[in-house]
Amino acid sequence: MQSIQLATKTLTATCISILLITSGHAATKTNKTAVNPGQVVVENTNGTSQEEIATVDVLNEICPQILGQNNNKNFRKGYSNLLRELLPSIKNPVLSVQSMHTDPDYMSILENARTKAVAEKIEDNREVCLEVLHYPAPKK
């Protein structure tokens, strides 16, 4: 596995390198994120891939356990900040990501991200979780 240099990468790139590294992996870019089934699809002008969203989604699943309950409130705030930065055109990105759990294609991508996260060392996942914990609000 590639060595990870957290100091020189953005959090998103770090998350992807830690959780989604596969040889020859090419993220499928999406310019749409469904808000809810049957609702209008919201354009994502940031070009965030579903793989990137799934990676952050997995962090929301594993980090509270890794960081402990005392950090849950701050982690949720950092997680929300990160999603707002990744999905700036979405009014409520946390709910939008949750609503993607009804999409079978996204769920396949999410399962792949979960598998990658479980395969990583706990220390690597903890480093990324700590970055999310302290992730600043996006600049307006």
SSE diagram, text form:
Blueprint: H1 11-19, E1 32-34, E2 41-43, H2 50-67, H3 72-86, H4 93-99, H5 104-119, H6 122-133
Antiparallel strand pairs: 1-2
Helix pairs in contact: 1-2, 1-6, 2-3, 2-5, 2-6, 3-6
H and E order? HEEHHHHH
Q: How many extended strands?
A: 2
Q: What structural class is derived from the secondary structure elements? A: mainly alpha
Q: Give the mean pLDDT.
A: 75
Instruction: Kindly report how far apart the N and C termini lie.
Output: 36 Å
What ranges have pLDDT less than 50 throughout 5 or more consecutive residues?
1-45
- The Rg value, from CA coordinates, equals 14 Å
Overall geometry comes to globular
What count of structural domains?
1
Spatial sequence of strands, sheet with the most strands? 1-2
Question: What does this protein structure show overall?
Answer:
The model is unreliable at 1-45 (pLDDT under 50). Helices cover 55% and strands 4% of the residues. It has six helices and two strands, in the order H-E-E-H-H-H-H-H. It is mainly alpha-helical and 140 residues long. A two-stranded antiparallel ribbon has the order 1-2.
Features:
mainly alpha; about 140 residues; two-stranded antiparallel sheet
Provide a quick synopsis of the model.
This protein is mostly helical and 140 residues long. Helices cover 55% and strands 4% of the residues.
